[in-house]
Specification:
Shape: globular
Strand order of the largest sheet: 2-3-4-1-5-8-7-6
Order of helices and strands: EHEEEEHEEE
Helix content: 10-25%
Length: about 140
């Protein structure tokens, strides 16, 4: 069954925010990766290497709060455009179906493609202005 989680974006303070959330909700980070850790073949400016590329914190039994800092090349985020709904699908075919449906009448912002972290991943904005991250994790059934 697909899982749905909130994904927040920050202007350079994701780590501070998530340490705050951790102090409230408890638990430990599942992941905390920095842009310098990316292995995508693109150079990362020195000013962005320590920024958070991805952080995730479980809250309760079935929810994972996730986030990243926004690279300067993508502009600043503002209240209202600083979140996405992340959906992790059960199959690559399901990811394609959801992505196609959600982006119809909206905007495909990152086509579905294999990522360096082992997922089939893409982003889009639906016709109502809601940002979505669609992902199939190749390692989820191992």
């Amino acid at each position: 069954m697909p899982g749905v989680n909130p994904y927040l974006t920050f202007n350079d303070n994701a780590e501070e925010a998530f340490n705050f959330y951790k102090s409230i909700f408890g638990g430990e980070f599942i992941a905390l990766m920095r842009f310098k850790d990316m292995d995508c073949g693109m150079p990362i400016p020195e000013s962005e290497q320590q920024k958070v590329m991805h952080v995730s914190l479980p809250i309760g039994k079935d929810t994972i709060l996730m986030a990243s800092d926004t690279p300067a090349s993508m502009g600043k985020v503002n209240p209202g455009n600083n979140f996405s709904i992340a959906i992790n699908t059960d199959s690559k075919v399901q990811a394609d179906e959801f992505y196609k449906g959600l982006s119809t009448g909206g905007q495909a912002t990152m086509p579905l493609q294999d990522s360096f972290w082992g997922a089939y991943f893409g982003m889009c904005t639906d016709k109502f202005g809601i940002n979505w991250m669609v992902s199939y994790d190749y390692n989820q059934n191992k």
